[in-house]
């Protein structure tokens, strides 16, 4: 039996029992690698490989991301690439074949080459936290920092292993790094998550400026000096390079168009906004930094003392998600500022999907709720209306401590943030047409809660029953909708009907119909009392 094993975790080393594989045809089996990450007991090792047979990938390839299967050797490579995408969220197999020292093509504006920076700049600790990062992308990040940063400004590269299980990130990485000048490796004994890991590293960093960097980046020549220059001029200024994009499939480099700034929407999703709707930027200002309502987490430079005084990363946020939004609102509200520096560029690897298996499905949502509850004051309602499930989620950790920090730092409110920092964010005036308790006029044990102006959460006998979009704005003639006591489902134009209980219905002709279970139904609208609902408060929209 011939098989190819994943080069970084050889099946042999893991003690995989290959006996059952012997029954396979030679070209049936392509390669084997551990199906899960973690510490393995002897028992688990025996059954812990995943087999990738030819057919598996042919099908996946047809609709999948890597194109069609070529020749026999090509197809093996293709299948390995496909498997690595599944495992890591990007084409790690291809990355393995690319130099650890490659340089992205020049993308800076010609004006940047005329820029002069101070001779004396603060020293930088480049902090790279990682969790299960493949060898090639991690080491390409480290080498690109070492290859492009002037030694006099680079205090150290701090590599922090956030409790990875992968073997290559342990002894092999340790011995590799010991041969690199200025690189320190720390293994965390607890899973800290993105923010927690960075906060931990910050306490150990020696440089005056912290440069947080994702573990899959490639720096351009001259990326560091413009960032340090801006931070040294104002220690409460937090800066980011222009983030270029490495394609997850082809590993090709794509330059990001200037101007660009970081923003977020009412769902608290972060994105880079190309061509921000600002006044036109004249060409001679192509080298001027642009203030940014938020910055992504990919690469971020911040003065170490300012980072500590503004409250580091929020320790109440869970492993991953929205920490860049939390930091952005906090920096701005509590006396700092943020900007993107056009003459500094770093490329960040995009991903096909997130590769992590998180213990908590609601982690990202919990983090967003925390941001809303602590930082958005009354505006948090707008977030809650956009994520109706947020109402149902309990926080793991109370916001009291961060609210105290907010008070003690004298941070401004979210209204100030919106009007001063991010006036372009449209504040929706989604006034509720209806509010308060909703009761059925005849059946009392049906309850509703109104999640937003267009969404109703139905619960029936205290269990969540369904979600439906209802028309809460009465029609012009009020013939339908809540003013008439009806709840109309927008898509179907049917009415919500409450049926009290199961029972055999006998028609006039004596025919017995199937019993109907009690509950809520969508039925053609009638004037029947089963479709009559009573709202505690009814606010008719203006103009009606
Ligand atoms: N990371 C970490 N611990 C975690 C999750 C992520 O240290 O629990 C690292 C990850 O390896 C990366 C950085 O934090 O270097 C940011 O995470 P990721 O790249 O997944 O975020 P994205 O760029 O997708 O927003
Ligand atoms: Mn990343």
UniProtKB/TrEMBL annotation:
Gene3D superfamilies named among the record's database cross-references: Spore Coat Polysaccharide Biosynthesis Protein SpsA, Chain A (3.90.550.10)
Cofactor: Mn(2+)
Pfam families: Glyco_transf_7C, Glycos_transf_2
Keywords, comma-separated and alphabetical: Disulfide bond, Manganese, Membrane, Signal-anchor, Transferase, Transmembrane, Transmembrane helix
Record's GO cellular component terms: endomembrane system; membrane
Domain of life: Eukaryota
Membrane topology, as annotated: Single-pass membrane protein; Single-pass type II membrane protein
Subcellular location: Endomembrane system; Membrane
Domain Glycosyltransferase 2-like, first and last residues per copy: 125-259
Domain Galactosyltransferase C-terminal, chain residue ranges per copy: 289-349
GO molecular function: transferase activity
Family note: Belongs to the glycosyltransferase 2 family. GalNAc-T subfamily.
PANTHER family membership: N-ACETYLGALACTOSAMINYLTRANSFERASE, POLYPEPTIDE N-ACETYLGALACTOSAMINYLTRANSFERASE 15
Name of this protein: Polypeptide N-acetylgalactosaminyltransferase
Organism of provenance: Oryzias latipes
Gene name of this polypeptide: galnt15
